[in-house]
Amino acid sequence: MGYTFPFETETRDELIDWLLEHQHEPSRCEILDHSRRGNVLYVVFHNRVDDYRFIAVFLLQGPTPASGCSGDRAWGYKDMDESMGPYVKDCPERLLKQSDVQCPEAVAWREACRTLRKAKARRRRLASQSRPGDRLRYHLGSSREGDVVITIDFVRAHTSTFFIGRDATGRMWRYRWDRVVIDPPQASHDCNAA
Other CB atoms closer than 10 Å to residue 32's CB: what's the count? Predict the structure, then answer.
């Protein structure tokens, strides 16, 4: 299950144009809408034979700095549909609404996309409202006892991805907003608990 590299594509935009042209078959499967998020292309297809709409996910891959030196400039793709439960979950809502596939994996994937979007919105809101001294719960990872969560004192925003916080020892570190716990999980192990 590797990537397919069309000969005609040397840029991501060329690959997207190639995919939209070569995947569109009006008599069988018609493209209704599409969106690119980073190196992921989401496409809504209408299967005209069985009359249903589904989302295809194309993971896009370009040349690495090392491969560019050796003359490899091609862009490739790996395709799957929503019923395969793709691990990428940032499909736009306008595309999710168009799908009418009801298999459990596709429904769960669309719900996971919506849940992730809501969590990102809550984190953006938290990032804009946090003030120095606010205490944030931060997910470090998982252990046998459950999720490892610590408490961080917010110092200041750094970027849209990172903030500066102070740990329990008073040392300042850079932390990721996407690891801040918004809704505490049921089974958590707080390393700062006495």
Answer: 12
